[in-house]
Structure formats: structure tokens, C-alpha cells
Amino acid sequence: MTQKNRSTSLFVLTILFFLWGFLTCMNDILIPYLKEIFVLKYWQAMLIQFCFFGAYFIGSLTYFLISLKKGDPINQIGYKNGIIVGLAVSGLGCFMFYPAAEFELYGLFLSALFILGLGFTLLQIVANPYVSILGKPETASSRLNMSQAFNSLGTTIAPILGGYLIYEFFFIEGDEGDSTKIPYVIFGSIFVLLAVLFRFVKL
């Protein structure tokens, strides 16, 4: 792999770290937002975090069990295909927000968050080790630190930017449930575009 290819791959992966940091913190905005729309009790509203982070546990455990029986799936399908699958699953989770908001189904919101969490789980399983091998072994920790820094940047600005998008920019008086449609369709489209980019970029 040439230095140019390494730099391109690292750049795209850094975008991924930023996005899943951003969308993870978007859950903090969804809790009060959906609680108000569906008139939920506190425990019902906290199912948002339960479904999202529960997907991390179930996805990681499933990956571990498959690895024990059939070997590491990433070694079999490759980093590139692993990232493409993770992006596709994440995009599907984002696109599911549209019908969830359209039909005002809280269960569908939770399903969308669960699928989004599964996609992020796969991306993290693939991306973390992949970043570490994109260059010299002695600089692996610095590359991971840089990627994690952009992940933290996403979690930092998500409450401000995400809150503005949902509560102001896309907010429609009398039809509050629609505020999540466009933002998450945009996020889903970004994931699809990144998947297409990974498909054609030489990694």
C-alpha cells in the first residue's frame, strides 16, 4: 500500500470515528424529544440507550461466538468488506428513522437504534485494528489517538448541532415527530456514500 493510499484510508476512517461519536451523543437529544412526543415514562425513554448500547453487547458477543466456531470473520471477508457491511447496516438504521417518524411508532425508533448500534459495533471491530496497521507499528498509537480525538469531537458538538437540527432547523410546529426524518436520512446517505467510496478506493 502506498503512502497516498494509507493517507486516504486514514482520512475516511477518521470521518467514521467522528460520525459514530456524533450519532452516539444524538441519543441524548432523542431521549427528551421522544419522551415528549410519545408521552413516555422515564424507564421507557431510557430504552433508547438500552437498545442502542445493547446492540454493542449482542453484536460483540455474536462476533466472538462466530470467531470461536468459524474463525475471525474479518480475516475471511477482509477489512474493506467489513467496513462496507458496517456502513450499510449503519445507513439502514438511519433510514429507518423516516418510517418511524412517518408512522409515529416508538418501537420502530428503538429498532432503528438497535440496527444503528449493530452497524457501529461492526465498524469499531474493523476500524480500530485497521487504523493501527495503516503505517509503521511504532506510530500506531498516535494514529488511534488522532482518530479517537475526532470521535470525541463528534460527541462534543453533537448536543449543540444535533439539538439545533432537531429542535429548531427541521422543527415543524404541530408535526414535531418529523424533525428526525431529514437529519437521519442525511446521516444515512453519508454512510451509503462512504460505503461506495470504500468500494472503489484501493485499501
User: Hey, roughly how much beta strand do the residues contain?
Assistant: under 5%
Number of H/I helices = 8
Structural class: mainly alpha
Q: Helicity, in percent?
A: over 70%
In whole angstroms, the N-to-C terminal distance is 7 Å
Poorly predicted parts: none
- Total number of β-strand segments? 0
The gross shape turns out to be globular
Task: Give the rounded overall mean pLDDT.
Answer: 86
Radius of gyration from the CA trace?
A: 18 Å
Helix and strand string, N-terminal first? HHHHHHHH
Q: Profile the largest sheet.
A: none
Oligomer: single chain
Q: Can you describe this structure?
A:
The protein has helices at residues 3-38, 42-45, 47-70, 73-95, 97-102, 106-132, 140-169, 181-200. It has 203 residues and is mainly alpha-helical. Helix 1 runs parallel beside helix 7, helix 3 crosses helix 6 and helix 4 runs antiparallel to helix 8.
